[in-house]
From TrEMBL:
It comes from the Bacteria. This is Lipoprotein. It comes from Sphingobacterium suaedae.
């Protein structure tokens, strides 16, 4: 009987450790299920257009000499993206032959300039709208990543406390409470096994959560199709334009290269579904905390490049002031 008492003591210590684990095993995500399943970042801005609606690449156009002599290449590129090149040609030629005493000519110039400014303002609003959606998706993903990380930290804290309790209980039991050497060794072994189990669970404490994104801007950047349902024509043209004369890559390809170079997606991933593309560029699935953080970073990078379009719009506006 004396030998059985320590054995049951050891089993009770192990059971206590398992009890702590079983109480921490589930992620309580019912209160954020709606954010996981559906996104409210897009306010029904689904773009429908054809390849014909995309501006012709700038290097394929025969540009007016008056235009090329007065505007820099970046400004011409932006003017083409938002569809105001024909208006700019008319505006320059009207101003060139403007008679300040002719009221009709002055009104024509003012009306044309107002039309140009209006298109620039609309393009700026489109950029802001797209950038805000990218930012919203980034924040949504980050919130879920923080939620999952909080659950991992909570489990790790409980595992740490359990390991301390098991270790202290085993030390007390083997250090003087149990006099029988065989029983003391049994308790020591049971305590060691429990501590090792707790340690392994802390080491592999990487949880996953179902996260869905049917509307996926990252997928369209990755696939690079001729048209987009996430981006308006001006932004999609801006992201995809590449000038063969300079050999400069498009912004879209630059973004993808950065994702690969910094290890955000596998360098050899071809989008077949066997690598990172299956989770990042699909409709969703089981994400770890690290994958959610990485996805949020990818949206942040995309947002930054789109927002830079406003710098070119500003440069275009400043050059128009000097005409």
């Amino acid at each position: 009987m004396k030998r059985c008492v320590p054995f049951y003591t050891g089993v009770s210590i192990l059971a206590a450790g398992v009890s702590v684990l079983s109480g921490c095993a589930s992620v309580k995500d019912a209160n954020i299920r709606q954010q996981i399943i559906a996104s409210t970042c897009n306010q029904q801005n689904v773009y429908t257009y054809t390849e014909k609606d995309i501006p012709t690449p700038l290097h394929q156009l025969s540009l007016d000499r008056e235009l090329t002599s007065r505007l820099q290449y970046k400004s011409l590129h932006m003017a083409n993206a938002i569809g105001i090149l024909p208006d700019l040609v008319r505006y320059i030629h009207l101003k060139k032959k403007l008679d300040s005493t002719n009221l009709e000519q002055r009104v024509s110039v003012l009306e044309l300039r107002q039309r140009i400014d209006n298109k620039i303002n609309v393009a700026s609003l489109e950029v802001s709208a797209i950038a805000s959606e990218m930012d919203c998706e980034e924040e949504r993903t980050s919130q879920i990543a923080n939620y999952l990380k909080g659950n991992e930290n909570d489990l790790e804290s409980k595992l740490t406390v359990a390991a301390i309790v098991v270790g202290a209980s085993g030390a007390i039991a083997t250090g003087g409470v149990i006099k029988n050497e065989t029983a003391s060794n049994s308790v020591g072994i049971a305590t060691g096994i429990t501590e090792a189990t707790l340690g392994l669970l802390m080491l592999f404490n990487n949880r996953k959560i179902d996260f869905y994104h049917k509307r996926n801007a990252l997928r369209e950047v990755w696939e690079g199709k001729s048209v987009s349902s996430n981006f308006p024509t001006s932004v999609w043209y801006y992201l995809n334009y590449a000038d063969p004369a300079t050999g400069e890559k498009s912004i879209r390809h630059t973004i993808i290269d950065k994702w690969k170079n910094f290890g955000q997606i596998a360098e050899n991933d071809d989008g077949s579904g066997d690598g990172d593309t299956h989770i990042y560029f699909g409709d969703g699935g089981k994400y770890s905390t690290e994958e959610l953080v990485n996805r949020a970073d990818m949206y942040d990078q995309l947002e930054s490049h789109i927002t830079l379009m406003k710098q070119d719009l500003k440069a275009l506006s400043l050059e128009l002031e000097k005409l």
